[in-house]
Amino acid sequence: MLKNRQNYLLTFVVLIFIGCWLMLFLGEMLPPGNNDYAPMDLRWDHWVRGSHTNFTLEYQRGVDANASWVQNPLAVAMQVAGYPNEDNINPERVTLSFPKPGKIDAVILSREAGDDAIRRTETRVEMIQKENFWMVEWAGVRSKCRRTLYPGWGPGGCP
């Protein structure tokens, strides 16, 4: 009887361990929703094209001038994520999804950062089409940090 209880307890502990490992592993494989990101303020967010750039103002100027980049969802998403950048470094990966007509979600994964706190950043940009322009409906960022015990992604920056 005692041996059966020990076996059940050992099985339970092993299943919990496997479940935690799968959550970490599958969490890396599943596409994230926007709840996994810290929302960006496109008016003043420091992630956008250097410090203190007003993306909203830059975007409106592009619309007023009928600029080609505001008509291209990939170009809009890249601008939000800070590309092109001063170092002329391209992102490692850009993923576009099309949840419904007239809507595009872009996820831009940065290359390994040389920063001592941030290992990687990922920017998510959700856009909708308004006439012939693509408008940012929501944007957010998440990071993998170097100096934390948790190896996965977390919303926002790193300590």
Q: Give the terminus-to-terminus CA distance.
A: 51 Å
Structural class computed from helices and strand pairing: alpha+beta
Shape: elongated
Contiguous helical run count: 3
When the domains are counted, the total is 2
Task: List the secondary-structure elements in sequence, H or E.
Answer: HEHHEEEEE
- Estimate the helix proportion, in percent: 25-40%
Number of strands: 6
Radius of gyration over C-alpha positions, nearest whole angstrom: 20 Å
Identify low-pLDDT runs. 24-30
Q: Give a short account of the largest sheet.
A: 6 strands, antiparallel
Strand fraction: 25-35%
Question: What can you see in these coordinates?
Answer:
By secondary structure, the chain is α+β, with helices and mostly antiparallel strands. The protein has two domains: about 1-30; about 35-155, no CATH class. Helices cover about 30% and strands about 30% of the residues. The protein has helices at about 1-30, 55-65, 75-80, and strands at about 40, 95-100, 105-110, 120-130, 135-145, 155. Strands 1, 2, 3, 4, 5 and 6 form a six-stranded antiparallel beta sheet that branches. Strand 4 and strand 5 (about 135-145) form a beta hairpin. The longest helix has 28 residues, at about 1-30. The chain is elongated. About 25% of the residues are buried.
